[in-house]
Amino acid sequence: MKAYTSYTKEELTAELTALNNKYKEYQDQGLKFTMARGIPNVDQLAFSMPMMDILKEEDDYVSSDGVDARNYGDLMGIPEARKLFSEFLGIKPEETIVMGNASLNIMYDCMSRAMLKGVLGSEKPWCKYDKIKFICPVPGYDRHFTICEFLGIEMIPVKLTEWGPDMDAIEEIVKDECVKGIWCVPKYTNPYGGCYSDEAVRRLASMKTAANDFRIFWDNAYAHHYIYKDVNVLNILDECKKAGNPNRCYIFGSTSKVTFPGAGVAFFGASEENVEFMKKQLSVQSISWDKINMLRHVRFFKDMDGVKAQMDKHAAILRPKFDSVLNALDKELSGLDAGTWVKPDGGYFITYQTVNGCAKRVYALCKDCGLTMTDPGATHPYHNDPDDSYLRICPSYPSASELAKAIEIFILCVKIATVEKLLK
Amino acid sequence: MKAYTSYTKEELTAELTALNNKYKEYQDQGLKFTMARGIPNVDQLAFSMPMMDILKEEDDYVSSDGVDARNYGDLMGIPEARKLFSEFLGIKPEETIVMGNASLNIMYDCMSRAMLKGVLGSEKPWCKYDKIKFICPVPGYDRHFTICEFLGIEMIPVKLTEWGPDMDAIEEIVKDECVKGIWCVPKYTNPYGGCYSDEAVRRLASMKTAANDFRIFWDNAYAHHYIYKDVNVLNILDECKKAGNPNRCYIFGSTSKVTFPGAGVAFFGASEENVEFMKKQLSVQSISWDKINMLRHVRFFKDMDGVKAQMDKHAAILRPKFDSVLNALDKELSGLDAGTWVKPDGGYFITYQTVNGCAKRVYALCKDCGLTMTDPGATHPYHNDPDDSYLRICPSYPSASELAKAIEIFILCVKIATVEKLLK
Predict the structure, then answer these.
(1) A101, A145, A219: which to substitute to probe chain B, counting the most B Cβ within 10 Å?
(2) Contact: B46, A68; criterion CB under 8 Å
(3) Which structural domain, as residue segments, surrounds residue A399?
(4) ipTM passes above 0.90
(5) φ/ψ (deg, to 5) at B310
(6) pLDDT at residue A294 tops 90
(7) Reported pTM
């Protein structure tokens, strides 16, 4: 394909006219699509329906330690749930707490407790510092950034590549003792889709930090969410232990994109010492979480083979959707100098990086044509993408036919914005 | 009955010998009971079992606003749940947020957010004050006090009577602008069992507070949990509105003792302005709560008549248990000058007030005889009951026969401790 950058001004003008005509045609169709959030499709929800009537008799509600799941008790989660989800995270049951319906809530809670009380080893609550800072690999997950912004934690963006964040930059930044932690989505990163390399994981676990209560917030949201390839990311807790920093990492996970978003179970993993410390804090805010839902999940999956079988089904639904987006991008935008993207191995997103200064324009064009995309800037702290370049594509929710149309519109808008930019 | 206080020393000594012999007999039986926590009995849990398979087809999972309860969405709760539980609290749906599995968690969250960010109308976050204080009517609920202690909020105890807290004292205390709020269990108070009088509610709603961001934490845990009499407690939100302080109260409730403790739904009520303010904060920590469980609850109860029918069943189970405790206390301790108690109209507790200086001894005697009671001091901030007098009796969990035996032991221990005291 001939790159737009090699077009003459006349060619660009003619192209823009043609593109705008096509755009007008789409607009006239009054379409309404969303590729804004990483939401499972209704077909994916159906996989978990057998879970809903798996508990039948009163006896089914008794957990393996004899606790009636319908009553108070087992603050750390029922033993069989701690076992299953510790395996999910690749750690030990004693290192795992199974809690409520969403890992976002656990992450917020960990951060707010750190602010109010500090973490294990803190000299004082984080809110007692004049300023504390968190490292935020970008592009990243907007809800992580919102937590920091809400709590007044200064965010330091660091570039994320296909292989993890810029470790050289991070190793410099953590020499500042105000830097208390880093947000990581290590596997099928949100929204990049890449995976942290062994080197990145090892350097995060072993780097020398000025703050001795530094925490890696390891949001392993897509731990088993392969689409094309189940990539092996090193276990952060193992690496932290090996490096002599066993308490450095907090691991988060949930079944939101395994069973039901917001109605699954969420879990936390860390060193036993961290878990014991947290147990005392959790006992202030909770008597116990929803153990009935834990039982449903454990009885449904039985073991990690059950989870993996379910993830195969999800992959089978998501793969053709990702194929459809990636093939269209390849076919329509390859070699056009209109931006770049990376084929992810799993997760829920494709990141499209426009020519600098075009992301907002693409978003606006899409919107005016009935296609809702994630807000531009959402991938960056304070909604500030200095290059105005990152856009997140979420192919999971629309049906196949909706998605095909949506991606046509997206590509058209990318082309228009790019040509407009070159004509300026 | 002849009061112990009128016994001669010889009579007391003889009585103590007789009591100790009886105690030894119980001890030899190797009994093991608990009256430590307000936990529904297994028979009560059975009432809600039909709820567990009430959602059958995929269509059953769609809420009234068309949102699939199995997916993300509806941060404030599904409309039908907001409607039902607003009626539960006696307020409007727009004044109600339906959330997770436990109101304790909501209360903790409200307090921790107030510390980190302040409430609507705060000049600054509460943690930025050198000191803030909360009023704690005593006897009260230990978990309320633990939240304050954890967050470093100084607690000011105020005496609770059968008709509510000492309002004269409270109206003085709130002249201090460091006093930011009060914990209240207005109906069938934990553990007193009394109800706030109309006067108490009106004075709380209308009193002049130095802090203009004063909050009443109104834990309406037993809103419909009558045993003998459904008492009408004035609606705090109505009274706050009438008094021109619409944003003063936060109301909390849950179905923990309606359906399943820890696996029910919990809800928050406040002025629309408070609710809007809170919505923004909640969006930082959550995408949505477990809407499937909300749907189960709404479909099961249908309306407040359904809730009330269920509460009648609970009362029918609890009444003979409370009868058994109260009759035994009346029969064995009336006129003995060995302490006092009040017959509650509802709730989960009976407060036994020993002769000063005897509560810890009674607890220890019970424990050594296999009967676990709530820790003495749990009814007071910092576990400090200056009179060493308050004990909480929780009759709900044991079976009828266990309970009969447990209360025999309790009464015996009260007698021993009282006589010992008089002999000192």
Answers:
(1) A101
(2) no
(3) 4-44+308-423
(4) yes
(5) -65, -40
(6) yes
(7) 0.96
